[in-house]
Amino acid sequence: MSKRYSLVALAIMLFFQMGNAQEKRGRARDFGLQIGILPTGTHNAITDVPGLSVGQKTLMAGDSIRTGVTAIIPHQGNLFQEKVPAAVYVGNGFGKMMGISQIQELGNIETPILLTNTLNAPIVANGLIDYMLALPGNERVKSVNAVVGETNDGGLNDIRGRHVSADDVLAAIAAASTGPVAEGNVGAGTGTECLGFKGGIGTASRKLPASRGGYTVGVLVQTNFGGVLSINGAPVGRELHNFYMQEPKEAHKVDGSCMIVIATDAPLSARNLERLAKRSYIAFGNVGAFSSNGSGDYSIAFSTNPKNRIPHESDSIELNATSVGNDYMSPLFMAVWEATEEAILNSMFMAEDVKGIRGRTVRALPIAETLRILKKYNALEYDKLPKAVSK
């Protein structure tokens, strides 16, 4: 091979490498990927649930800080004084989620839900408590159940440095918005990994028809788990040769955890919120996860319906609340499955390559190759597939 030919070949190789590095990212639906049959809300995000806001603080500094905070705020009032019904479902308990026992005992939450990394959970909880105590109206409060979820981002982040501070907590809360939600390498998802690729923050929503209540279900996920990636039934992880227990050399870690936050404006009791939370694990399995031994997988669900808010203090012995009946829960179950699955995929489609601690790099899902595989298995653009001919 001539020297000139070698240089040309090298230039071509570098061109394609640059093209891959600059591959256009987007949400799953931007590429024709459809999950389920229900319509989305306006932003296809958890913020489609009325009054709910999300704020994030991303920390990327030097060659080893890759972490952050994500805050989910159920309503715009004082959440301690006006609590909301809530429930938690534990898929696998190898996690450090804070506040879980009081949610299970009382069936409500009284602070925003904050997501971060494992070793920063106590620091974030402390900042959240400071925030709640400082709210007008909380001057006499002597107990706060801070709700903090986490996943371990130590593969890319200097997790032992515990770089998230109380100021970062306040910044995430202050940045909260009811509009579109940033996804991928942001907030608590900055240093996370998912199914052999870069994970992160993802979100999606579903809107029920008026005949089924017209309710909205929104989901936000922090993805940091392993398995064998599957999208609409297509074996993407296997085809890309990147999956758990791949021989002869394992491609990626399987432990790490997933936080799933579910919000709805449907009036639900804590009991039915737990039932709703359980259904999110159908989506967890659909994408190829199996809750490994070292994965802390939690789903927390709450209702923002104003009629069901729980006052911190009340002169009435009895509380009046409305609730969707058991026989009418199935549409909500379907909505949470669809929204969770799409949120997980959005976290991967929107993520980008990250180089972190000790020079380790985790690549983002290769979109062009993934789309090729999805087309091969007829898993794209269902509305455009040929219709079956009846005999």
Number of domains: 1
Treating each run of at least 4 consecutive H or I residues as one helix, how many helices? Answer: 8
CATH homology superfamily? L-amino peptidase D-ALA esterase/amidase
Mean pLDDT: 92
Structural class: alpha+beta
Strand content: 15-25%
CATH topology, which one? L-amino peptidase D-ALA esterase/amidase
Q: Distance between the terminal alpha carbons, to the nearest Å?
A: 61 Å
* CATH domain class: Alpha Beta
Order of helices and strands: HEEEHEEHEHEEEEHEHEEHEEH
Q: Give the radius of gyration.
A: 22 Å
The poorly predicted ranges are 1-20
How many strand elements? 15
Helix content estimate: 25-40%
What is the level-2 CATH architecture name? 4-Layer Sandwich
Largest sheet: 7 strands, mixed
Q: Which geometry do the CA atoms define?
A: globular
Describe this protein's structure.
With 391 residues, this protein is of the alpha+beta class. The protein has one domain: L-amino peptidase D-ALA esterase/amidase (4-Layer Sandwich). α3 crosses α4 and α6 packs across α7. The longest helix is centred in the C-terminal third of the chain and has 20 residues. It comes from Sphingobacterium lactis. Belongs to the peptidase S58 family.
